[in-house]
Amino acid sequence: MKLLVTGGAGFIGANFVHYTLGHRPGHSITVLDALTYAGNEANLSTVKDKIRFVKGNITDTKLVDELVAEHDIVVHFAAESHNDNSLKDPSPFIQTNLIGTFTILEAVRKHGKRLHHISTDEVYGDLELDDPAKFTADTPYNPSSPYSSSKAGSDLLVRAWVRSFGIHATISNCSNNYGPYQHVEKFIPRQITNILTGEKPKLYGQGENVRDWIHVDDHNAAVWSIIEHGRNGETYLIGADGELNNKVVLELILELMDKPKDWYDHVNDRPGHDMRYAIDATKLRNELGWRPTYTNFRDGLAATIAWYAQNEDWWKPQKAETEQKYKNQGH
Ligand code: NAD
Ligand code: TDX
Question: 95, 142, 144, 241: most buried, per Cβ within 10 A?
């Protein structure tokens, strides 16, 4: 297949390109990425002879039309992805996540191509800590932030294009990813790189908020299961039963990096901060036979810490600017 991977220079998209070359050889890959602050061509430097890279914006109708026409499937990762940024300035979230997805949908419709749309569990809002329920594909949409509402809107556009225009599309909503190449603005890389630079980690509020962690390779393996065996028009939730609260994750990072358990600062909480995400991935497991391989979070986290320790050149250039942004927000 000829794959057009949007956002392939970002965290999950770049890992998808590496995963595909390693586990699904024989496909051709074009990456379309605008190289925003979150995109980094260096994420693809080791595979640059094996793929085509196009620097461009998913809101560029002409470019998207030409590229979609040349490919069999669009695997759509490109997005503005950080909640805190969306609270400061929602505008690029509306442009990229809504207008960008609309632009892709129109090209997919015109050329009769397939789309796999990558989304998030945040579209379902949040759960109470003591709620036995988890998110399923039938949970009503109830997003909290400009980020999650723009992703929710993009999912609904895809569903409408399937129903009204009969396009061939699938959607996946995944929980919080961790692994290599994640931007230092995100929780786990921020804390690891703080410690590596002698700065205390920063915990929002009391750290009770729960996230359902999954290794990025397990996410991408699930995406491939859906591409190969998913039913047209269906939504699949991706999660690996990795619920942990932020304080526990932070204490594990501190332990693995030989720091005292309480060596961190409490900082301002995020406005509207979602309390808990939890995925019920039964449909994905039963229908498509997917299973996570990173079942030991401690080991996956240790490997991620080692990656950041060994790749200072990759994250150092973004670190000071990111921390300044947080300081301005009281985080
Ligand atoms: P990221 O911010 O690391 O990467 C996003 C990429 O998209 C960057 O390379 C950026 O340059 C590119 N991009 C942004 N705007 C663009 C535009 N207008 N045109 C072309 N390229 C553009 O994000 P990520 O964490 O890798 O997330 C990828 C996708 O997965 C997103 O759709 C996100 O909503 C979804 N998701 C992320 C997580 C997570 O834990 N990170 C969990 C579930 C779903
Ligand atoms: O310094 C921090 N301290 C802290 O306590 C940061 C950056 C975050 N946090 C908390 C906020 C969240 O409860 O950690 C948790 C995780 O925060 P983020 O890494 O910002 O992720 P989250 O807001 O949960 O969203 C992520 O998962 C779903 C991704 O960024 C989204 O793209 C994805 O859709």
Answer: 144
Q: Which residues of the chain have pLDDT under 50?
A: none
Residue with tokens 């526990």: 248
DSSP 264: -
Tokens of 94: 């509306």
Residue 290, in any domain of the structure = no
Contact of 209 with 176, CB cutoff 8 Å: no
Quote the crossing angle between the two packed helices 101-111 and 146-165, to the nearest 10°.
20
Please, are residues 109 and 61 in contact by the beta-carbon 8 Å criterion?
Answer: no
Structural domain that includes position 232: 2-178+212-238
pLDDT tens by residue, 256-269: 999 999 999 999 99
Indicate the number of domains in the chain: 1
Residue 229 inside a domain? The answer is: yes
Determine the distance separating the centroid of ligand 1 and the alpha carbon of 12, expressed in angstroms: 7
Cα(149) to ligand 1 centroid in Å equals 15
User: What pLDDT does residue 113 have?
Assistant: 98
237 C-beta closer than 6 A to ligand 1? no
Closest ligand 2 atom number to CA of residue 186? 19
**123-to-207, 257, 320, 326 alpha-carbon distances in Å:** 22, 34, 31, 24
Q: Give the count of beta carbons closer than 10 Å to the beta carbon of residue 45.
A: 9
CA distance 102 to 225: 25
68 close to 114: Cβ distance less than 8 angstroms: no
Candidates 11, 51, 55, 75: which one to mutate for ligand 1, based on the most atoms within 8 Å of Cβ? 11
Tens of pLDDT, residue by residue over 30-61, are 999 999 999 999 999 999 999 999 999 999 99
Residue 310: per-residue pLDDT: 98
Tell me if 230 is assigned to some domain: yes
Considering the domain boundaries, does residue 315 fall inside one? no
Q: Is 215 in the pocket of ligand 2 (CB under 6 A)?
A: no
- Predicted pLDDT of residue 212: 98
Return the CATH number at 169: 3.40.50.720
Residue 245 CB less than 6 A away from ligand 1: no
Whole-model pTM: value is: 0.99
